[in-house]
Amino acid sequence: MANTRGAAVKYDSVQKSYDGETLVVKNLNLDIPPGEFLTMLGPSGSGKTTCLMMLAGFEPATHGEIYLNDRPINNVPPHKRGIGMVFQNYALFPHMTVAENLAFPLQVRGVGKAEQQDKVKRALEMVELGAFGNRRPAQLSGGQQQRVAVARALVFDPELVLMDEPLGALDKQLREQMQYEIKHIHENLGVTVVYVTHDQTEALTMSDRVAVFNDGVIQQLSTPDDLYEDPQNSFVAQFIGENNKLNGKVVEINGSECLVEIDDGTKLKADKVNVAAVGDRTTLSLRPERVEFDTVDTMDNLVNGRIEELIYLGDHIRVRMNVGGNDEFIVKVRNRGEKRKLAVGETVRVGWALNDCKALDAVV
Amino acid sequence: MSDTHAGEVLTTQDGKPLKVALAKALRREKLRALALIAPLLIFVLLTFVAPIVDMLFRSVENGIVEETLPKTVVALQEWDPTSGTVPDEAVFVALYDDMAVAVEEKTHTRLGSRLNYEASGISSLFRKTGRGIKRMDEAGPFKEQFIDLDKDWGTVETWQVLKRFSPRYTPGYFLNAFDAQQTANGIELKPEDERIYMYLFGRTLFLSVAITVSCLLLGYPIAYLLSALPLRSSNLLMILVLLPFWTSLLVRTSAWKVLLQQQGVINDFLVWTGIISDAGRLVMINNQTGTIIAMTHILLPFMILPLYSVMKTISPSYVRAAKSLGANDWTAFWRVYFPQTIPGIGAGAVLVFILSIGYYITPELVGGTSGIFISNRIAYHISSSLNWGLGAALGTLLLVAVLVLFVVYDKIVGIDNVKLG
């Protein structure tokens, strides 16, 4: 973000209800500094798209105020907000050519003909579609349409660009490619981007910060690696990446550590994240790749598990085990051409470090 | 597409040419499909296409002169209508023979009324001749006797009409439909005060355009509302739109009579509120206004439904995108939404226009004299004046006019741009 020319966005205790009975967005407070790429991530119905629509001006906030560069924008109509937006199905105007689509925001702003052409050309080159100006959107592939939509949202030099699940309609390979392209465009231009998705990989790859939404509330707002390494609650741990759950009860608390007795009686040491007192129910969260088969006695946690299933995936092997009464316990073993063969039905000893095991709020 | 290389013909396993085998395999499917639609096809051919073709054919058919006066027609071939003299005795001999047979069979009056369409007075000439022919001297000479019986036989014009309409096919009905007539000097327009059909065609076109435009103006917002409202309310609205379909056309038209007449509900209300004076009651029925109002009401669903089906497919994200790109409400509508509804407008306009151009019952009931259409005139010729030939010619012209407009429309808007659903 060398040349930041983005806008700052601030949600100040924003609430939204459609029917007057339930809140879709419950008291949202969010500060987005200029030039940040912020992703709102969450399952459908979590309120993330509503937040985006309120920022764009298509939905009024029921309560609270949204600020754009410290200016309240609740009463500013969408077309005066100067926010670029990429829609889920691109919303490219089908009766206009690609160049006309791109020229549209410039025309309505009264930009001169020559400058229009110049800007359209530059925008098309930015997304490597220089030769496609005269085509209709329907004549383009999904990925090309996507690029045109991005170019159109950027052609009038907005300080803020909103993207509403823009890659949802693309196949996996194209989606990954576009993720990098959008990320690079953001890095080059320095605009603020608010990106909505339900795809956690997308969120982790592209964002500076991710706001994980559930039930109208931001569950956690942090950088992608923090989100993965230090989930603040069970929902986040479950939603981001793969996760093993072990339910139990806190029996001892030592500063930032705690001792948890899981339901089959095994006692495990864990990082105390979201538990309050001894006797609380808790769910331990453990990433599959942090569990080791080559155990040493000095490891914080050591348990026996029975191998239920082996799935060969080339670069790694997924081992489904029964650990502590949970037979959905997954361990990922890197494929190092090992001599030691695992076999279904075998009982093996596995272990992991205290810091990789998070004691979070209990999942019922 | 072709997989055959330089002269090599692809064959099936048992050596038949592939194309023959394919055609054979497809033929059975085609026959089966044809058998499925055969009942409807035959029904339509027998009850719809055949009568229409037969009716349209009457616009040029003119066998009656040749059938009633066969010898006269042959004899007249020698006569030069531009000579300025009445044909000679030979023609009158033939006429006497033909008339004797015709009077026996009572077909001469039919011929008289047919030729009366072309030149008035001929009907009474034939009637009079029919009555007098028995008293004629069979030995001749006939020329004087015929002229004595009715001096019209001695005028060149009578014979010119006979000669002109003796061929089996005639352009006479069509000329008539164009307000023209065939005279000795060739084709020319009728006198100003006798021209009525071109004017009626013009009025039909004008009123149809007016009805189409008012349907569009009234229907567009409703169609938009239908497509934008949540499902529950839009279903209710849709029922209201379709309600006119479930009511008899006559009931609806009569309702307009009650509403619009000078002592009707609307005038009474306007007088009561003092907007108009009792003396200045509006004339809203039995004229063009009445026709436009009643027909707009009747044809409105035909505009709304195609518009609705097109608007429903336009995602609201287009307008949102336009607004996010900086367009105000009007620009977003005019530059982004409206162009996408053109296929619906096209379909609705074509439908309403074609329906209204041939409409009959409503103009008949509420149109008075100034609001009637060409179709009312066609109906008059079919059922009252019994000049089926002219009725058929007018009908053919109407059909051609619609087809021409259709082609023009295709050139301008493109027929594949029309979407009905």
TrEMBL record, chain A:
GO molecular function (one): ATP hydrolysis activity
Domain ABC transporter: 9-240
Subcellular location as annotated: Cell inner membrane
EC number of this enzyme: 7.6.2.11
Gene Ontology CC terms, in alphabetical order: ATP-binding cassette (ABC) transporter complex
Catalytic reaction equation(s): ATP + H2O + polyamine-[polyamine-binding protein]Side 1 = ADP + phosphate + polyamineSide 2 + [polyamine-binding protein]Side 1
PROSITE patterns xref list: ABC_TRANSPORTER_1, ABC_TRANSPORTER_2
Topology in membrane: Peripheral membrane protein
Keyword list, A-Z: ATP-binding, Cell membrane, Membrane, Nucleotide-binding, Translocase, Transport
Classification via InterPro entries: AAA+_ATPase, ABC_SmlMolc_Importer, ABC_transporter-like_ATP-bd, ABC_transporter-like_CS, Mo/tungstate-bd_C_term_dom, P-loop_NTPase, PotA-like, Transp-assoc_OB_typ2
Any Pfam family: TOBE_2
Role according to the record: Part of the ABC transporter complex PotABCD involved in spermidine/putrescine import. Responsible for energy coupling to the transport system.
Entry's family note: Belongs to the ABC transporter superfamily. Spermidine/putrescine importer (TC 3.A.1.11.1) family.
Quaternary structure note: The complex is composed of two ATP-binding proteins (PotA), two transmembrane proteins (PotB and PotC) and a solute-binding protein (PotD).
UniProt-recorded name of the protein: Spermidine/putrescine import ATP-binding protein PotA
Protein's organism: Roseibium aggregatum (strain ATCC 25650 / DSM 13394 / JCM 20685 / NBRC 16684 / NCIMB 2208 / IAM 12614 / B1) (Stappia aggregata)
Gene: potA
TrEMBL record, chain B:
Gene Ontology biological-process annotations: transmembrane transport
CDD domains reported for this sequence: TM_PBP2
GO cellular component term, pick one: plasma membrane
Localization, UniProt: Cell membrane
Keywords from the UniProt entry: Cell membrane, Membrane, Transmembrane, Transmembrane helix, Transport
Protein name: Polyamine ABC transporter, permease protein
Family statement: Belongs to the binding-protein-dependent transport system permease family. CysTW subfamily.
Membrane spanning stretches: 33-53, 205-224, 236-253, 290-310, 342-361, 388-409
Topology of this chain in the membrane: Multi-pass membrane protein
Cell membrane found in the keyword field: yes
Keyword Cell membrane: yes
